[in-house]
Amino acid sequence: MARKFMALFVGALLALSFAGIAQAKTLRFQCVYPETAYAGQTTTYFADQVNKMTNGKLKIKVFWPGQLVKSREALESLKSGMIDGYSGSFLYFTGVFPEVNVQWLPFNWSSPAEAKDILLNKGYHKVFAEAMSKHGVTFLGSISVATMGLMTKFPVNNLADLQGKKIRAFGLEALIVQALGAAAAAIPGAEQYMALQRGTVDGTDYPWYTLKKYKLYEVLNYVSSPAYHTPGVIELAINTKVFNSLPKDQQEAVKKAALMAMNRSFDMSPAWDKEAIEFAAKKDVKIIELSKDELNLWIQKLMPLYEQTASKSPYCRQLVDILKANMKARGVKF
Q: What is the pTM of this model?
């Protein structure tokens, strides 16, 4: 009798154990940035928080650039379920998702704190999420990638200094440099070091922290401030069917972890920028601060891009209106 009881007891324990294993689920997230990049670190943080909050019942496995799909294939792969989630910019997909261009309009916010307030409290995320939902994708949140803007081999004190120069930029960034009077060169980020070294281009539109991480200080001499994007913002998203298939408590864990990751990245942005500025000074890369009048002139030159972008879709119009209302409130004239 005792043996029979023990056998039943052990069997019950095994059944519970296997049930726990069966309930565990792993989601595959593709990150388009290296693991060591700030965005990669934030994505890892997000995955760790999901694992902790679900006691291991839901795990996020992060795959790095090219491990699952190519960056430009990520949206279709996400929609089809080939990957479960995505961490990176939707700028790769502006042909079908023009709304992402809005947050890359130049000088749209002046600090990480202001950006976070617009995204979370002014209705921006709500509209953005609705636009993304039309593609079978659930928007989880934004991730800051720190300050991004114009870095050059030559000093830029005014618009005249940009005339006839060639800047590495693509997409909306190319339209920005063209509006300011420079020519744009669509050179991949991985190839820009050699292009700058050889003089193929005279500057780039890229995150400040890459002066150190990508050793761009070796081929650049000046940084223009304020930057176009303070900070630049990318996306964290998940396949809607996959998200809806999760138990409610796991859905809440994913959303909470995404918000925590967002807050962490925006809160750390000033420190990332400070590190970049201090590093630039050590390497004799000069930060040139535009005068207030010169900055206003740049903004006037760039404002037509807001209307061009707003015309792309009703969602774009709503998002641009949110940005312009905030800019007007802080005294920007346009």
A: 0.90
Quote the CATH superfamily of domain 24-145+231-268. Answer: Bacterial extracellular solute-binding protein, family 7 (3.40.190.170)
Which tokens belong to 291?
A: 């005068």
What would the CATH number be for the domain defined by 148-230+274-329?
3.40.190.170
Neighbours of 58 (CB within 10 A): 22
Q: Are 203 and 219 in contact (CB under 8 A)?
A: no
Residue 27, H or E segment: strand 25-31
Tens place of pLDDT per residue across the chain (334 aa): 455 544 444 454 445 444 444 578 999 999 999 999 899 999 999 999 999 999 999 999 999 999 999 988 999 999 999 999 999 999 999 999 999 999 999 999 999 999 999 999 999 999 999 999 999 999 999 999 999 999 999 999 999 999 999 999 988 999 999 999 999 999 988 799 999 999 999 999 999 999 999 999 999 999 999 999 999 999 999 999 999 999 999 999 999 999 999 999 999 999 999 999 999 999 999 999 999 999 999 999 999 999 999 999 999 999 999 999 999 999 998 7
- In order of 3, 213, 262, 291, the CA distances from 41 in angstroms are 53, 14, 12, 35
* Rg over CA atoms, the chain: 23
Among residues 6, 102, 86, which one has the least CA distance to residue 47?
A: 86
Q: In the chain, which residues fall in CATH 3.40.190.170?
A: 24-145+231-268, 148-230+274-329
> Which residues make Cβ contacts (< 8 Å) with residue 118, sequence separation at least 6?
109, 124, 322, 323, 326
- 51, 25, 40, 72: which is closest to 236 by C-alpha? 40
Cβ proximity of 138 and 255 under 8 Å: no
